[in-house]
Amino acid sequence: MEEGQVDMIMGTCPKCGGDLQETRQSTEVQINEQKKIKMPELSALKCISCSDVYFTPSANQEMERILMREILNTEIDELEKECRSCSSQERYEELLIEIENLRKQLEDIIENSL
Protein backbone atom coordinates (compact mmCIF):
# COMPACT_ATOMS: atom_id res chain seq x y z
CA MET A 1 0.00 0.00 0.00
CA GLU A 2 1.39 3.42 -0.94
CA GLU A 3 1.53 6.33 1.51
CA GLY A 4 -1.87 7.98 1.67
CA GLN A 5 -3.67 4.98 0.15
CA VAL A 6 -6.63 3.98 2.29
CA ASP A 7 -8.47 0.73 2.93
CA MET A 8 -11.61 1.44 4.97
CA ILE A 9 -13.08 3.66 7.64
CA MET A 10 -11.83 2.58 11.09
CA GLY A 11 -13.69 4.81 13.59
CA THR A 12 -13.86 8.47 14.47
CA CYS A 13 -11.21 11.07 15.26
CA PRO A 14 -10.98 11.92 18.97
CA LYS A 15 -10.09 15.51 18.04
CA CYS A 16 -12.81 16.47 15.55
CA GLY A 17 -15.10 13.44 15.24
CA GLY A 18 -14.23 12.94 11.55
CA ASP A 19 -13.88 9.50 9.98
CA LEU A 20 -10.55 7.68 10.39
CA GLN A 21 -9.13 5.67 7.51
CA GLU A 22 -6.39 3.07 7.61
CA THR A 23 -3.18 4.19 5.90
CA ARG A 24 0.60 3.83 6.10
CA GLN A 25 2.60 6.77 7.37
CA SER A 26 6.24 7.58 8.05
CA THR A 27 7.55 10.20 10.45
CA GLU A 28 10.81 11.75 11.65
CA VAL A 29 11.85 11.70 15.29
CA GLN A 30 14.55 13.86 16.91
CA ILE A 31 16.97 11.72 18.97
CA ASN A 32 19.14 14.58 20.22
CA GLU A 33 20.13 18.03 19.03
CA GLN A 34 22.27 16.58 16.21
CA LYS A 35 20.46 13.40 15.27
CA LYS A 36 17.07 12.86 13.65
CA ILE A 37 15.83 9.52 12.32
CA LYS A 38 13.19 8.75 9.74
CA MET A 39 10.80 5.98 10.73
CA PRO A 40 9.68 3.49 8.09
CA GLU A 41 6.09 3.54 6.88
CA LEU A 42 3.90 2.08 9.63
CA SER A 43 0.19 1.35 10.08
CA ALA A 44 -1.79 4.41 11.07
CA LEU A 45 -5.28 5.88 11.10
CA LYS A 46 -5.67 9.27 9.42
CA CYS A 47 -8.62 11.62 9.91
CA ILE A 48 -10.31 12.55 6.66
CA SER A 49 -11.45 15.90 8.10
CA CYS A 50 -8.50 17.31 10.07
CA SER A 51 -5.66 15.06 8.73
CA ASP A 52 -4.47 14.09 12.24
CA VAL A 53 -2.59 10.78 12.23
CA TYR A 54 -2.84 8.13 14.94
CA PHE A 55 -0.36 5.27 14.80
CA THR A 56 -1.68 1.83 15.68
CA PRO A 57 -0.46 0.11 18.88
CA SER A 58 1.79 -2.25 16.87
CA ALA A 59 3.25 0.72 14.97
CA ASN A 60 3.91 2.51 18.27
CA GLN A 61 5.73 -0.58 19.58
CA GLU A 62 7.85 -0.75 16.44
CA MET A 63 8.71 2.97 16.73
CA GLU A 64 9.67 2.45 20.37
CA ARG A 65 12.03 -0.43 19.43
CA ILE A 66 13.60 1.65 16.64
CA LEU A 67 14.03 4.63 18.96
CA MET A 68 15.59 2.50 21.71
CA ARG A 69 18.06 0.99 19.22
CA GLU A 70 19.01 4.44 17.93
CA ILE A 71 19.34 5.90 21.43
CA LEU A 72 21.51 3.00 22.60
CA ASN A 73 23.68 3.19 19.47
CA THR A 74 24.12 6.93 20.02
CA GLU A 75 25.09 6.40 23.67
CA ILE A 76 27.54 3.65 22.71
CA ASP A 77 29.13 5.92 20.08
CA GLU A 78 29.51 8.75 22.60
CA LEU A 79 31.06 6.46 25.21
CA GLU A 80 33.46 4.99 22.63
CA LYS A 81 34.59 8.51 21.69
CA GLU A 82 35.15 9.31 25.36
CA CYS A 83 37.01 6.00 25.76
CA ARG A 84 39.44 6.89 22.95
CA SER A 85 40.36 10.18 24.59
CA CYS A 86 40.38 8.93 28.18
CA SER A 87 43.62 9.41 30.12
CA SER A 88 42.66 7.54 33.30
CA GLN A 89 42.85 3.75 33.25
CA GLU A 90 40.14 3.53 35.91
CA ARG A 91 37.72 5.68 33.89
CA TYR A 92 38.62 3.75 30.74
CA GLU A 93 37.62 0.47 32.42
CA GLU A 94 34.38 2.02 33.72
CA LEU A 95 33.54 3.15 30.21
CA LEU A 96 34.20 -0.32 28.79
CA ILE A 97 31.77 -1.80 31.34
CA GLU A 98 29.12 0.82 30.47
CA ILE A 99 29.58 0.11 26.76
CA GLU A 100 29.25 -3.63 27.31
CA ASN A 101 26.04 -3.15 29.33
CA LEU A 102 24.53 -0.96 26.61
CA ARG A 103 25.47 -3.52 23.95
CA LYS A 104 23.69 -6.24 25.96
CA GLN A 105 20.58 -4.04 26.14
CA LEU A 106 20.81 -3.46 22.40
CA GLU A 107 21.12 -7.20 21.73
CA ASP A 108 18.03 -7.85 23.89
CA ILE A 109 16.01 -5.28 21.95
CA ILE A 110 17.13 -6.75 18.62
CA GLU A 111 16.30 -10.31 19.74
CA ASN A 112 12.86 -9.25 21.00
CA SER A 113 12.02 -7.57 17.70
CA LEU A 114 12.75 -10.65 15.56
Please write out the topology.
Blueprint: E1 9-12, E2 19-25, E3 28-30, E4 36-38, E5 42-47, E6 53-55, H1 57-84, H2 89-113
Helix pairs in contact: 1-2
Give a structural overview.
With 114 residues, this protein is of the alpha+beta class. Helix content is 46%, strand content 23%. It has 2 helices and 6 strands, in the order ββββββαα. It has helices at residues 57-84, 89-113; strands at residues 9-12, 19-25, 28-30, 36-38, 42-47, 53-55. The strands form 2 sheets. The protein has a 4-stranded antiparallel sheet with strand order 1-2-5-6. A two-stranded antiparallel ribbon has the order 3-4. A hairpin with a 5-residue loop joins strand 3 and strand 4. Helix 1 (57-84) runs antiparallel to helix 2. The chain starts with 8 loop residues before the first strand and ends with a helix.
Please, how many helices? 2
* Overall average pLDDT: 87
Total number of beta strands: 6
Structural class: alpha+beta
Contiguous runs where pLDDT drops below 50 for at least 5 residues:
1-7
Strand arrangement, major sheet? 1-2-5-6
Gyration radius, in Å? 20 Å
Q: In this structure, how is the largest beta sheet organized?
A: 4 strands, antiparallel
User: Secondary-structure element order, as H and E?
Assistant: EEEEEEHH
What proportion of the residues is helical, as a percent range? 40-55%
Q: How much of the sequence is in beta strands?
A: 15-25%
Q: Termini, distance in Å?
A: 23 Å
